[in-house]
């Protein structure tokens, strides 16, 4: 059995997912479901998925692709061709879940209306992901994670007070939408277990981000309060900030509970602040935020990160290091929990990436393989399982409707 087809006993073992998504939310839904044991067939363009051409490369090998395409079987099919559409229809006929994130209406233009697909496969769950959703005046607008982070109000609240709105370095909106999409299809699967019927799900990129924004909406609705940037401070919980240490590292502190704030003040030798009745509650401390933050910042600046955290742990202050990725790699807790998985890549050798989350005691989710180098690594195998003969596969490849990886065949892969 090849590496790309070995079985799993993960909690979603037995489910089949067809992933025709692109950068990044759609494919990440497939990744999450594959991590949990589903058989995920990634349908990429015969010229290769776009993720193969973004991010950083080692010796020409795309690293981000290794992450997003992990645990997936790869079938290179041009679904804009008649023969390619027939391949996708056969895949959908046998699938539990179909994930796509083209512009609204594009799949229907290619002949993949959910109403028609559901006649063929009544239990099919189809997840649409787009920038602004399948309805509304903005539905036709191009939507990427960056625009969702901006439109949702997230960027407006991120960054220092007197600095421009801050966008994250990584596509957070895509990741949040992917997690939302994954739980949405699992909810649809549960509903299907009751009546055998699938569902069509409409998920925008901006709405999951907006849903994470706490009380921002109700605060404006009831008080006309517009959330804005406060750096690492909070406008409802004080002290809450990042503080620079003597050795040029950073410590994060959170004191949402009043008892924690008192312990923090005592830990830095400021019993006067801990016992001040005018600082007993968060609303009171917000009014004197400069005084509170200044006392902590001055104390932290005179000590190393290790010294600061040792004092805070002893005092049961809610604090921790702000880690860069090098520190994450070296951290003993990360090692003990197996937060990073060690995988063997046939080209790159040993690779470490984030392991599957969460951890299951009985039906273990696991990393089985990384995103494969060859475009259409499993095209021939997938087509064969759909009933195509060797001659038909060769004809499809010759027409350009599919791409069959010659490299996989030569290297003893699944072809």
TrEMBL record:
Q: Say if the entry is tagged with keyword Nucleotide-binding.
A: no
On the tree of life, the source organism's domain of life is: Bacteria
Which InterPro entries does the record match to this protein? CoA-transferase_III, CoA-Trfase_fam_III, CoA-Trfase_III_dom3_sf, CoA-Trfase_III_dom_1_sf
Q: Name one Pfam family in it.
A: CoA_transf_3
What does the UniProt keyword field contain?
Transferase
Q: Which Gene3D superfamilies match?
A: Crotonobetainyl-coa:carnitine coa-transferase, domain 1, formyl-coa transferase, domain 3
- GO molecular function (one): transferase activity
Protein name (database record): Crotonobetainyl-CoA:carnitine CoA-transferase CaiB-like acyl-CoA transferase
């Amino acid at each position: 059995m090849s590496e790309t087809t070995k079985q799993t006993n993960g909690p979603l073992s037995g489910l089949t997912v067809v992933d025709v998504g692109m950068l990044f939310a759609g494919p990440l839904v497939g990744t999450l479901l594959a991590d949990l044991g589903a058989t995920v067939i990634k349908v990429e363009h015969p010229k290769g998925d776009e993720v193969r051409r973004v991010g950083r490369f080692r010796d020409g090998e795309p690293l981000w692709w290794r992450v997003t395409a992990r645990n997936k079987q790869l079938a290179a099919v041009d679904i804009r061709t008649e023969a390619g559409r027939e391949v996708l229809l056969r895949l959908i006929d046998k699938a539990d879940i179909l994930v796509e994130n083209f512009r609204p209406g594009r799949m229907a233009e290619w002949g993949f209306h959910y109403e028609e697909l559901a006649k063929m496969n009544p239990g099919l769950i189809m997840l649409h992901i787009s920038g602004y959703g399948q309805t509304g005046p903005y539905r036709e607008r191009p939507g990427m994670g960056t625009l969702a982070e901006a439109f949702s109000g997230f960027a407006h609240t991120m960054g220092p007070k007197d600095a421009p709105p801050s966008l994250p370095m990584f596509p957070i909106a895509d990741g949040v939408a992917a997690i939302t999409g994954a739980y949405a299809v699992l909810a649809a699967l549960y509903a299907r277990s009751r009546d055998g019927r699938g569902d069509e799900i409409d998920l925008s990129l901006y709405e999951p981000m907006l849903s994470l924004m706490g009380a921002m909406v109700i605060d404006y609705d009831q008080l006309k309060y517009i959330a804005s940037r406060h750096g690492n401070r909070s406008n409802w919980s004080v002290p809450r900030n990042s503080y620079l240490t003597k050795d040029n590292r950073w410590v994060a502190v959170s004191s949402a509970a009043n008892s924690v704030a008192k312990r923090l003040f005592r830990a830095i030798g400021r019993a006067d602040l801990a016992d001040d009745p005018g600082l007993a509650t968060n609303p009171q401390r917000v009014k004197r935020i400069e005084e509170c933050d200044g006392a902590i910042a001055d104390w932290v600046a005179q000590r190393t990160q290790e010294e600061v955290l040792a004092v805070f742990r002893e005092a049961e202050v809610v604090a921790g290091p702000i880690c860069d990725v090098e520190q994450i790699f070296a951290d003993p807790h990360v090692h003990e929990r197996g937060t990073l998985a060690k995988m063997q890549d046939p080209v790159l050798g040993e690779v470490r990436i984030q392991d599957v989350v969460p951890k299951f005691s009985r039906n273990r989710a696991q990393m089985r393989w990384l995103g494969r180098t060859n475009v259409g690594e499993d095209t021939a195998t997938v087509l064969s399982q759909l009933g195509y003969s060797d001659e038909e596969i060769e004809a499809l490849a010759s027409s350009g409707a599919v791409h069959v990886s010659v490299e996989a065949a030569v290297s003893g892969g699944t072809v």
